[in-house]
Design goal:
Helix content: 25-40%
Number of helices: 16
Largest sheet: 11 strands, mixed
Number of domains: 4
Strand content: 15-25%
Distance between the termini: 50 Å
Number of strands: 20
Length: 559
């Protein structure tokens, strides 16, 4: 039994955890209502309410000893071979149905039986009854697709002549020929939402031989687009409500049993308690994925919260935290933080960044010397930058705030000593609306995804972002990641003095003091450092774990 419960818990984890499974259950329960109320398809539904003989036969006239007129006995034999079909038709959808909604009109064919009479009964309104009577057309099987011209008046006139000839025959009068109508078509059918009516058809078998009354009824027609013509009296084994209900029930059982069991992963040293993780906005999505994996392995007794405060602010908060707060706090930092020797740290991954420009700039590579001139204000227009073209296009810098570890890395490793990001001159990223005297247009944003989005939409924009944020924006925005001095990141050359791509670092986890044995902080640090499930989540987020290979371990040691 334990193995079964463990398997169910793994199924819940495979499906994304409790939240996605619960959402799937809600969506499955809602699916039939959405299909019915929101998709709003046009539906004509019908149901055969009666299909049997009329019930009057020669046996009702006695045993033959009574003097029954021959005409009456002939009528009785005729009625014995007659049947009646009653079909209810209604608008079962959410829209009014108009004649133009039909590609082929609603048609009723009764096998070999011949139509003798028809009427419309119990229509929702007198107007609807009148419209349906006017739209009834009767056809023969030999019409071969030709438009049916015989209407209800034609049928009634023929019926009057035939009955008169049977009941009150005139000497020398020939029997009225039977037209041989095999079906009824409802041309110009229109039904407002919720309207319904009944079609009643009187039929006769094709000959007067003995035998059972046939009951064949074939109803056809086709609506345009997503419209449906549906037999509501026909029980279907597979329906949307049944399928969605069964799946919702199955997922509910799996979820409940999975939550009840929630066996811990034996390879994870799980712990309970509270832990807060803050810091780098670039790496926080990867940390959040690792937290979700820890919860999947250990359950909800571990309460871990995250917040992207920025690397610098996070390290500062940890340094200034009192012992009680610091015992439940870990900080994620892009590169080595200014910990003043008061904190402990672990390196967990390689983070690669890119200088990014708007696609209109037309560059794919930039010299670091030219990049420095852009940031110190020597260049204010892209026509001044070698290789960027001759058309006038203002340079617009989208930077990070002072609490960003990515900004410190960019200034230290890319711009070099003596060159910073410069003054904050713009709030809109379009003009120097905050400080007109500044040498260059420069705005700040705290979220990497927002920075890349602005660069992709603002002509002449330049900035920097991590690999993950850039990959998410490439599919929707016009952005270009530049090589620096003709080089892109390569593990074989990274970190060598005077060569290699400079814009990368190791991601640090900072914490104050040695974690208490058995604490949630100690458990989580051990999990994120080396557990294969944590490493897989970090890799999936676009970063290389330090423990992944000797090469990544060497690179992490360099930074």
């Amino acid at each position: 039994m334990a193995a079964v419960l463990d398997g169910l818990a793994r199924v819940v984890a495979f499906l994304g955890g409790t939240g996605p499974v619960l959402l799937s259950i809600v969506l499955l329960v809602a699916a039939p209502f959405v299909d019915r109320l929101l998709v709003r398809r046009k539906r004509v539904v019908y149901r055969i309410l009666y299909n049997s003989k009329i019930g009057i036969g020669p046996e009702t006239l006695g045993d033959g000893a009574d003097p029954v007129p021959p005409q009456l006995r002939q009528v009785a034999r005729l009625l014995d071979r007659m049947s009646m079909v009653v079909v209810r038709i209604r608008n079962g959808g959410s829209y009014d149905i108009e004649p133009d909604d039909f590609e082929h009109p609603l048609t009723f064919v009764f096998g070999e039986r011949l139509v003798w009479n028809a009427r419309i009964s119990e229509a929702s309104t007198p107007e609807l009854r009148k419209e349906l009577r006017a739209g009834m057309r009767f056809f023969r099987t030999e019409d071969n697709g030709q438009p049916a011209r015989d209407n209800l008046s034609t049928v009634r006139q023929w019926l009057k002549e035939r009955v008169t000839g049977l009941v009150v025959p005139q000497p020398g009068q020939q029997q009225v020929a039977e037209p041989g109508w095999h079906g009824v078509r409802l041309d110009g059918l229109s039904l407002k939402r919720g309207q319904k009516a009944k079609l009643v058809v009187v039929l006769r078998e094709p000959d007067l031989t003995e035998g059972e009354i046939t009951k064949t009824v074939r109803i056809t027609g086709k609506m345009r687009d997503t419209g449906l013509i549906k037999d509501e009296g026909r029980a279907r084994a597979i329906t949307l409500p049944r399928v969605s209900g069964m799946l919702a029930g199955l997922l509910t059982i799996v979820l409940v049993l999975g939550l009840v069991s929630r066996p811990a992963d034996g390879t994870v040293a799980c712990a309970s308690g509270e832990l807060r993780i803050e810091g780098s906005s670039a790496f926080m999505p990867a940390i959040e994925a690792v937290v979700a994996e820890y919860h999947a392995a250990c359950g909800d007794d571990a309460r871990i919260t995250t917040e992207a405060t920025g690397s610098v602010k996070g390290v500062r908060n940890l340094i200034n935290a009192d012992p009680a707060a610091a015992s439940g706090l870990i900080v994620v930092s892009d590169g080595r933080g200014d910990d003043k020797g008061l904190l402990r740290s672990d390196k967990i991954a390689i983070v690669v960044y890119h200088v990014v420009v708007n696609g209109r700039v037309g560059l794919t590579s930039l010299r670091r010397a030219d990049l420095q001139k852009i940031y110190d204000g020597t260049y204010t227009d892209w026509k001044q930058v070698p290789g960027a073209g001759t058309a006038a296009l203002p340079i617009r810098i989208v930077g990070r705030g002072e609490s960003s570890g990515t900004r410190l890395l960019f200034e230290h490793e890319v711009l070099g000593p003596g060159t910073g990001e410069g003054l904050l001159s713009s709030g809109s990223c379009l003009t120097k609306d905050r400080y007109p005297a500044a040498p260059v247009i420069r705005c700040e944003r705290e979220d990497n995804a927002e920075i890349v989005r602005i660069i992709s939409t603002v002509d002449g924009a330049i900035g920097y972002a991590d690999e993950l944020s850039l990959n998410e924006a490439r599919g929707t925005g016009d952005v270009t990641a530049l090589t620096l001095d003709g080089q892109a990141f390569a593990p074989s050359t990274a970190g060598k003095p005077g060569e290699g791509y400079p814009f990368w670092t190791a991601e640090y986890l900072y914490y104050k003091g040695a974690p208490a044995p058995g604490s949630l902080k100690a458990s989580f640090l051990s999990f994120v450092r080396a557990h294969v499930r944590a490493q897989a989540r970090i890799s999936a987020a676009g970063f290389e774990p330090c423990a992944a290979s000797p090469v990544t371990r060497r690179l992490c040691d360099l930074r």
